[in-house]
Design brief:
single chain, Jelly Rolls, binds zinc ion
Length: 134
């Protein structure tokens, strides 16, 4: 077992996908785990986490643009804070992801990266990483 680690993220725009793969890899390395599971958890209701392609930046922009078409900012929502679209996008994308750790490395596909998805930035954000060895 290992302690929960925190990764701090500062987003710069309202809608953004931040590649946090290197930060998660470093967190896993700090635990000394060679085999196990790494859970990454987003404790925010207007952001999320996803695994997606990191090679072509158009994938990120297409994903964000399509989510914006699916859930427009102004659509007659009742929530007084005015960010219901961000809450809905957060639920669509999800708040956590679990990765396999093998021989001390994250088992990600060649084109895969871990992205923090900001839907109501810019803000100071954080994610938690917990590694369970085994
Ligand atoms: Zn809100």
């Amino acid at each position: 077992m290992s302690e929960v680690q925190t990764i701090d993220i500062r987003t710069t725009t309202r809608l953004e996908m931040v590649d946090i793969t290197a930060l998660v890899r470093a967190a896993v390395k700090r635990t000394g785990a060679t085999h196990g599971l790494a859970t990454v958890f987003c404790p925010h209701t207007t952001a999320g986490l996803t695994i997606q392609e990191n090679a072509d930046p158009d994938v990120k922009s297409d994903l964000l643009a399509h989510l914006a078409r699916l859930v427009p900012k102004e659509a007659g929502f009742r929530h007084g804070e005015g960010n219901s679209d961000a809450h809905i996008k957060s639920s669509i994308i999800g708040a956590s992801t679990t990765l396999l750790v093998d021989s001390g490395k994250l088992l990600l596909g060649h084109w895969q990266a871990i992205f923090f998805c900001e839907f109501d930035g810019p803000r100071d954000r954080r994610v938690f990483v917990k590694v369970v060895k085994g």
